[in-house]
Amino acid sequence: MCLEEACSTYIIYKHTIKRLYTLLKEGGVIILINGVNQTYYVQEKRRHPILPLTRTMVIEALREAGFEDIHDESQNQEADNVADGDGIMATTAFKPKTLVDE
Fold first, then answer.
1. Domains of the chain: which residue ranges?
2. What is the pLDDT of residues 24-72, one digit of tens each?
3. 9, 60, 61, 72: which could join 91 in a potential S-S bond, CB 3.0 to 4.6 Å?
């Protein structure tokens, strides 16, 4: 699923990340791959608008949702006839385990 296509605003994106957090088991990992500052992509000659996200926005949404141990890597990429934007970003984050007092 492309969250940046399904979410029309950053507020909706952050809410969706929080919802995914609640669905994930403790100790689970989320892996996100998205374009950086990308506003559209083309598939089957149709242009699809998407929510442009920056590295800061993605990490902020994950932290606010409660994720920890957030790691990201990005690769620069020039705009072409398939998509615009500055590159591709891959991010992983973990839902912390709850410590139980014994």
1. 3-94
2. 999 999 999 999 999 888 888 898 899 999 999 999 999 999 999 999 9
3. 72
